[in-house]
Amino acid sequence: MGWEGPAGANAAEERNLYTVDEMKALAGVLKLDNITCALRAPVYAEKHAGKDGRLFYGEGMVRTEAELARLELPDPHDDALYAEAEQFAANKGDYALCLSTRAGVFPTMLSMGIEAFSVALSEDRPFLEAVLDRYFDWSTAVVERICSMGFDVLVTTDDMAFKTGPFFSPKVMHEVVMPRYRRLAEKVTMPWVIHSDGNVAPFLDDLLTLGIAGLNPIEEGAMDIRAIKRQHGGRLCLIGNVDLNILSRGTPADVEEEVRRLVLDVGPGGGYIVASGNSLASYVRPENALAMGEATRKYGCYPLRA
């Protein structure tokens, strides 16, 4: 067990933060059994630098059909695009290798801006779908290539929800987003994990029809991981739920107790990977991130016991 998970919208955009050797060194410190290579389409939005190299997105740049020409994506059939991914695949060693990309929902929302995205849902659906198709077509071509390169897990990071509920209705999800996800699913030949912060429970039945292997990060306070385990534990690996408040404001002992309870409650029968209930944000206390890895090693061995 043990998974760092993608860093979501505050991470560097399409580039990797670390080389494969640096990622393996970091995985060793955090007691991870996997490393991640990121390959994401660029987002067309204002970008603002935050503390410690963090990236924050501002106003979208593709708000109208007239601005659609701004949305230029790298050629997904260009061999050079995959050079870094090939390095990761060739040098992964004993680690499981994850490919992190965005399917298309979140870059569409960021590039349009949440206001323009929301208005277009009711007033200019063809334009919104044109932006979605640009991103989904790109990610579908990338996924098809990546699935032949020796990666072990595909992770698509598309935030689709606030803590209280989704950004848009289940009807929009079913009619607009799912046909594009299904097109992507046709090219996926390895285990697929979908990442979204917030409460995606209203979308879960639809997402399960894609044949996904896992869901991340099952944010504490937004989703009930124990209820999801009872309902879907036989067909879905649950990844995450370690409370970010504890990781950022608690003690190592608090973190150990949080991991212990999650492993005992969600781990029986398998299908649970310990990870934070979001990303390992910059405000997480380093000693607590280390404690999460140590606690996973301590309690995550079968037979499970307190």
Structural Rg: 19 Å
Low-confidence spans: 1-12
The percent range for helix content is 40-55%
User: What's the shape?
Assistant: globular
* CATH architecture call of the domain at 8-216: Alpha-Beta Barrel
Task: Give a short summary of the structure.
By secondary structure, this protein is an alpha/beta fold.
Describe the structure.
This protein is α/β, with parallel strands linked by helices and 306 residues long. The chain has a domain at 8-216: TIM Barrel (Alpha-Beta Barrel), CATH 3.20.20. It contains 11 helices and 9 strands. A hairpin with a 5-residue loop joins strand 2 (45-49) and strand 3 (55-60). The longest helix is centred in the middle third of the chain and has 22 residues, at 125-146. Residues 1-12 have low confidence and may be disordered.
Strands, helices and their partners?
Elements (H helix, E strand, L loop, with lengths): L19 H11 L3 E5 L6 E5 L5 E6 L22 H8 L5 E6 L3 H8 L1 H10 L1 H22 L6 E5 L12 H16 L6 E4 L8 H5 L5 E3 L8 H8 L4 E3 L4 H6 L2 H15 L5 E2 L12 H14 L7
Parallel strand pairs: 1-4, 4-5, 5-6, 6-7, 7-8, 8-9
Antiparallel strand pairs: 2-3
Helix pairs in contact: 3-4, 3-5, 4-5, 5-6, 10-11
